[in-house]
Amino acid sequence: MSSLAIYLKGQGFFVRGYDRSNLSELEKHSVEVTHEKNTSDIDWADEVIYSSAFSQNDFLISYAKKIHKPCFQRGKLLGDIASRYENVIAVAGSHGKSTVTAMIYSILRVSGQNPTLHLGAIQKESGKSYDHAGSKYFVTEACEYHDNFLFLHPSISVVTNVEKEHLDFFQSFSNEKKSFQKFAKQSGVCIKSLSYQSKNIRCDNFGRVIFDVEKNGQKCFSVHLSIGGTYNAQNALYAIEVCKLLGISDCLIKLGLESFKGLQKRFERVNCKAKGNVFLDYAHHPSEIESVVKSIAKIKGKKSTVFQPHTFSRTLMLMDDFVNVLSKFDEVILFKTYAAREEEQPEVEQKLLSKLSQKTNAQICCCQSELEQKLLSFQSDVLVIMGAGDLPEKLLESGFIWRN
Question: Dihedrals φ, ψ of 190, to 5°?
Fold first, then answer.
């Protein structure tokens, strides 16, 4: 939503919006954001765009429809914008789509292709989730929630993986897979499997990933990423597949990948008042947490996490999987669930805590100041703050953590 708002602002539209959280990226572009649901903003608007975080019964959407304002899903607006570009490259999947999208963009940018970017995360280097540039390539992250990606008709699409996710909307894994199949069918070319392989994956002394790229058993080139997370070797392969289809040389692909500085909250090392190596990660699904566990495995010492669950429905649906993967940490602090569009269900947190406590040292903390006090006395060599909620922003605002 932020990227789309900034895009529209840059096209000369008047843009105003509502969100529960502060959005510094929008403030930089003079997009006014209110934190109270005010009907005057709806009265003022010619069109209302809403994200899937809002239900159709939401007060603002209901009011907009009552006074006959045109209302559109975020995905429809994205599809309309994308249709104006010569080539649309869309990356979908349950995990990894933000990073793959940004890697493709980095390669095309280094190659002099002047791509436009729409991303659901913030680039560390530029501090932006978008780049409105040329009209030849539109590189976008494609979200499956509420079938938003079906508004896109990409020239090239990527499906990184499909796992049980967003079942509050899809209702079943079968329905979810059918949506991904529709997305693939309406793409010119859909990359679902890889012809390239990553071999000899290792990390340098700073935790940055190094690997060799092979095809048919033959080494093509080596890549030394600027970021950690061994799973990023796999993400890079999808970017390589796309860019080889576009005729980009191995030399420029290598340069583009090695120029990529990473995304905020994607295995991001930060400074912290607490001791040890501290990382922020967006992981909010068991498979994503498992990837984080593997990435810190070679760091010696005690490993702890602060995990903020994202929605009660996801926690309930994948409860045992969460318990199994979180119990691989020596200590777990559960922070108050980010409910997003859902009603509070504290009993779900207590159930997760109860099951976790049978396998590892676990506790729950619902107050930020209390959490910060606990972490100050924490004895841990590695601390990962995980989740797709608002905890990282709160800790950044308070100064408990800070970026370089």
Answer: -120, 120
Tokens of 313: 């429905």
- Whether 193 and 86 share a structural domain: yes
Q: In this structure, what CATH number is given to the domain that contains residue 199?
A: 3.40.1190.10
Residues 188 and 148 in one domain: yes
Which pLDDT belongs to residue 41?
86
CB 94 within 8 A of CB 160: yes
Three-state SS letters, the chain: CHHHHHHHHHCCCCCEEECCCCCHHHHHCCCEEECCCCHHHHHHCCCEEECCCCCCCCHHHHHHHHCCCCEEEHHHHHHHHHCCCCEEEEEECCCCHHHHHHHHHHHHHHCCCCCEEECCCCECCCCCCEECCCCCEEEEECCCHHHHHHHCCCCEEEECCCCCCCHHHHCCHHHHHHHHHHHHHCCCEEECCCCEEEEEEEECCCCCEEEEEEECCEEEEEEECCCCCCCHHHHHHHHHHHHHHCCCCHHHHHHHHHHCCCECCCCEEEEECCCCEEEEECCCCHHHHHHHHHHCCCCCCCEEEEECCECHHHHHHCHHHHHHHHCCCCEEEEECCECCCCCCCHHHHHHHHHHHHCCCEEEEECCHHHHHHHHHCCCCCEEEEECCCCHHHHHHHHCCEECC
Structure-token pair, residue 124: 């560390």
Distance CA 29, CA 193 (A): 39
Regarding whether 193 and 213 lie in a shared domain, the answer is yes
* pLDDT one-digit tens code per residue, 268-277: 999 999 988 9
Q: Which two tokens stand for residue 266?
A: 């994607």
Low-confidence ranges of the chain (pLDDT < 70): none
Q: Residue 55 has what pLDDT?
A: 83
**By residue range, what is the domain housing residue 10?**
2-69
Number of other CB atoms surrounding residue 99 within 10 Å: 29
For the entire predicted model, the pTM comes to 0.94
Distance CA 133, CA 113 (A): 10
Q: How many Å apart are CA 100 and CA 191, to the nearest integer?
A: 12
Chain segment 159-212, per-residue pLDDT in tens: 999 999 999 999 999 999 999 999 999 999 999 999 999 999 999 988 999 999
Residues 84 and 218 in one domain: yes
On whether both 236 and 293 belong to a single domain, the answer is: no
